[in-house]
Amino acid sequence: MVLSALLDNRIIVLYNKSMNLWQYLKAENTLLAEESDFGSLLQRVETLAEREKRAPDEVVLSLLSQALEAQHSSDSNRQHWHALSPREKQVAALVCAGLTGRQTAARLVISGETVKTHVRHILRKFNLRSRRELRAALEGWDLSAWGKTDC
Asked: Would you say the pTM of this structure is higher than 0.70?
């Protein structure tokens, strides 16, 4: 059973435990008919569910799970970034730009061994094993302030 109430100009929908998530979302859409974006979203979920031959409820839960995992990963990477020293941030930015250890050393006027040490520390702080994984973790970040380039 769907119960709705108008509270502070917002519609609140309550549902009982026998109602699945998809039924709840459909009820919410009925109550919020003026929200065309929500209806479009529901249609896209239905299309995806049909294509994957899965229940819409299962698709919604899967998408929510993926979004939460991506958010957690992003938050985690942000925390790892803040744990880096300023020099490690410079090295990480240059690694993301695809520079070799030798190129990074020349750019920062440090030895190749120092670059290797910084990269080891960066990878350890991010719990990663390779430069490629670091580039993937920071993909899309604007690191221009650190290495004069984007990842």
From this structure: no
